[in-house]
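PROTOCOL LOG
Step 1. Enter all chains and additional molecules of the complex.
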Amino acid sequence: MRAPRFEFLPLFRSVVVASLAACAGNAVADVTVYTTREPGLIQPILEQFTKDTGIKANTVLVKDGLLERVKAEGDKSPADVLMTVDIGNLIDLVQAGVTQPIESKVLNETIPANLRGTDGHWYSLSLRDRVAYVSTEVDVTELTYESLADPKWKGKFCTRSGQHPYNTGLIAAFIAHNGVEATEQWLRGLKANLGRKPTGGDRDVARDILGGICDVGIANAYYVGRMKNAEPGSDARKWGEAIRVVRPTFASDSSKGTHVNISGAAVARHAPNRNQAVKLLEYLVSEPAQALYANANYEYPVRAGVPLDPVVASFGTLVVDPLPLAEIAKHRKQASELVDKVGFDN
Amino acid sequence: MAEILQLEAVTLAYDTPQGRQGVVENLSLGLERGHIGCLLGASGCGKTTVLRAIAGFEPLRAGRIVLDGTVLSTVEFELEPEHRGVGMMFQDYALFPHLTVEKNIGFGLRRLDKAERARRVNDLLHLVGLEGTGRRYPHELSGGQQQRVALARALAPQPDLLLLDEPFSNLDIDTRERLAFEVRDILKATQHTALLVTHNQAEAFAIADRIGVMQKGVIAQWDTPYGLHHAPASTFVADFIRREALMAQRAQAYLRGEEAG
Amino acid sequence: MASITKTFPDKAQAASPPPASKRRTSSLRPSAGWSWRLGATLIALCVAAPIGALIWMALGGSLEHWQHLGQHVLPSALRNTAALLLGVGVLVACLGTGSAWLVTAYDFPTRRVLLWALLLPLAVPTYIVAFAYLDILHPLGPVQGLIRDVLGYDSPRQFRLPDLRALPGAIFLLGFVLYPYVYLSTRVMFATQAASLLEAGRILGQTRRGVFLRVALPLARPAIAVGVSLALLETLNDIGASEFLGVQTLTVSVYTTWITRSDLAGAAQIALAMVAIVVMLILLERHGRRHQRYANTQRMRPVQPERLSGARAALVMALCWFPIVIGFVAPALYLLGETIKHFETTGGVSAQLLQSGYNTVSIALLATLITVAAALVVTWAVRSAHTAKTRFMKLCSRVATVGYALPGTVLAIGMLLPIIGLDNALAWLMRPFTDTPPGLLLMGSTAALVGAYVIRFLAISVGSLESGLDRIPRSLEQASRLLGESPAGTLRRVHLPLLRPALGAAALLIFVDTMKELPATLLLRPVNFETLATWLYAEAARGTYEEGAVAALAIVVVGLLPVILLARHQLKSGH
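Step 2. Run joint prediction.
Step 3. Record the structure below.
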């Protein structure tokens, strides 16, 4: 999905409207959310939140440059909650000093420790597992990430650009599990298996599997939910029906977990309504909210035991790779450099 | 008769990367009111530069230019071309292609009201023999006609001095001869003072009362056509004048020059 | 003869020079017209600033970081870019020159249509042609489906064409959409210069083909050089096609280095490499043109084409229509089909698309106005400068036009530093007045984007106005001045009316180019501000092609306008 790419747009982009910011935070018992995600996704959740708590939630869509904007706004910023996708982005927010730590038993009990900041600065709200799309014509039900570099997949492997954050996240996780050298070998193996240049989006993986260009690919699981639930007869539906989701694990790790990225939130450093912010976060991990969350984008809820969308449920239970996300984020730069070194995108 | 145009020790030069290149050196001449003068010489002798200096398009390095008592140019000072009271006819006619003949002629008559301007334009069209062509565009006219329009346009604001920059060079020989005489007639009739620049001796002798033979930036001799022919001041002038065979029209001009004394 | 009353404007009556306080110097002398020259200098500085900024930013990176780029990123990016340029260069030279020759030397059915139809691919930007063909030539797409039916295969797994997403695919697509640059310049040359040469060649016993190889081709070399360098500059500039087709060019590397890794210094370094290539391209073009004579402005005898019939005519027709089909007809039909499909299923366009369209048009209008005005300042300053100042003014003019050669990406990155500097300065100035920090005013508004458009496209208007002004002889100015009109009045009454066609052409070209622009727009637009091009890019990246096709179709339709202008010009010149 390309849209998140714009979320990574760099340092110097920010929006003028101080007045807009000022307006947003005026009312007393409101909470202001700066989000990089389409407001439509969580709008129903926020409406429910208001009904249940009486706190009104204002959303400001900041598609790109969330960090820059909050930084530029400084201590006058009306933002209470910052929501974004990708652990890298979230950690960037923390490291830039625009978040504040919070203590919440609810959050700590609901969210596994590896999916939140140990210092209480950031919290996952939903999981975006990076899985294998396998052609229905191929009889494979179990995979490890490592095995994808096997020569048996030569010319049959598809994925998007190695430099895309979704992929560098996975590669960073691989480094954390297996070390740099092994990762480099793995990448070279993957590259040799490519059926076509690594370009396009995650959905193109499904499309190219249907088109016979490849048999297996790496992509995010929630697209499959979207594709399989698309209009019957539409292209997206056809692509979805040509594939099966297999959740790979790390061969080197006995926990048999799948790599996930997340969408998450943090409380802004200068939040004018801190308490309301915490309440909102706690609400977002509650059962009803998580159920809505899961259905909004076919992502996997972070809370255990929440009913899943049937398509998502058909993938099986998600076992999350227990490696702390913060750990993974540390290897991001190395991952990106490895992609260059191996010439993966070439 | 007073001299209306005076060039006093005028020096003109270009600045090149190699340094200053002199074009005209210490040139002086005087032109009487109502007379038609001519600077005659081969290309590169500086005659056109002198004309441009009088018009205000060339700066002076030394000397000064005075017209009807007003100083036009000195080394420190230059009057803008639009305030000099000088008109000009160009080798390429320089008619404004996007304007009709009428609008061309009336271009310099902004200060007149519409009726007055229309009357003046009509008079001029009549003067140059182009009645009825007012609504046409320059590209619809022949070369000779265009040059007449140019004359009318230049005369419209009643300039003190009319400059002619090789105005007949772009015309064929027959038109050239005919037009040269006509222009002289018109100028004499309207009593305009004019200065012509050309390399063509036939034109010079056909039109001018006074001719200055130029060589390398200096006037070798400024005299009547008769004087040039009978009393050349140097061997250069003598050779220059004698170089072309006498043709019938030159004999005419020669005679006229003799008559005017 | 009627008496003519004297009403010339008053002159000073004094016999000696007026006192110093009243002295004025002619505006055709160096010291007057300073405001125009100041304006021109400022404009030139604005254009030169990005390059200076690039160098500054590039020097900011750490050593190890340079090492990484130099070892792992630059070499392959350079290789890919070089290969792409070479391939596209050869392809456009062949297609452009070949088609120009065929329509000049031969007569066959539909020849008159081809004269302007060969320009049609100009309406299709590079990213749109990639966008369209990714679908058209996909194994699941119409072409391969047809081939499979014909050959009797059921599934793409049984039979598949090689994937378009590779260097050869990129060369193919870019070649077929950029060849009109070469076609245009060589066609003009053939049509105006070739007649007598052709006849001389024929008399000397050469066949048509011999004449082509020995006479026409060498004659056309300068024109080919110009056309090819324009096409290659476009190739270098492209972001959409290279990225969609998986070719890691320098431009793509700039994007990934900056956007994905937030590494501005690295991006600046790659951008400088691109500048080096641009300089080489310009030198190449100059070298190719070194023997060019100026076009003869007298009426030229048109070449007498040889009439063809039967199989030969059909062959030549096919050869000439082929590039048009690939470069324009196929993508346009595809976009039209998708648009119709979209309207059938959803019955309308999204608000976002409409908003993008509105943004695109308004920003294009603004950019056009400013660019044309700036060009007027620059060209008029050159025109009215005198002797010593002329060289400097000409330099300013050259610098001002450098923006066109700069790829949009390079320009955008180069502009960041100056703009942020300006933003900080503005914020500092505004501190006493406001409580809240104003944020980044310029970066956050469309000012930066419009600025980039102006710098990038100034060359078009300067070029158009320059040649328009060149066609106005100096004697017209002089005549106007001597008739009592001031320099400003002369500009207004003489030059501007005569420049109307040049101004109009420039405005149209800039408007369309602005609407099509993608690379700089992606980087400099304010948050949540989409143009048709960026919106289309986002749709393509997301894999939702349907509504993207509507935006693409809109861009192509608008892109047809300058093609029509060029076509009319071609037809009017009677060839």
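Step 4. Note key features.
Chain B touches chain C through 53 residues (CB under 8 Å).
The first helix of chain B runs from residue 47 to 55.
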